[in-house]
Design a protein that fits this description.
Blueprint lengths: L1 H24 L5 H13 L3 H9 L40
Length: 95
């Protein structure tokens, strides 16, 4: 029984260490968020599962033929320019 308990604690510590490393290498969170998540990770048993879930990178499966997305993943709704009358991107100005 002691061996199973020790193995469980060791597996939990390894999981916490791996998730902690991923958390601190991630650019998704600022320093204060990383500190808070690290504290949660090590103070609450099993929190590594939750923190790991939030560390997953969102998938960007955008069809190449979709004209509303540019190559860098940002939207391109055509709102950056203006029309020939200088009325802005919507061109609905009435003179």
């Amino acid at each position: 029984m002691w061996i199973a308990l020790a193995a469980g604690v060791l597996m939990l510590a390894i999981a916490n260490a791996v998730v902690t490393l991923r958390l601190w290498r991630s650019a998704m969170y600022d320093r204060s968020q990383q500190v808070a998540q690290t504290a949660i990770l090590w103070l609450i048993p099993g929190a590594a599962i939750i923190v790991h879930w939030f560390l997953r990178e969102p998938s960007r499966k955008i069809p190449a033929e979709d004209p509303t997305y540019s190559n860098d993943g940002t939207t391109n709704w055509g709102l950056q320019g203006s029309d020939s009358h200088g009325d802005g991107p919507f061109g609905g100005g009435h003179h």
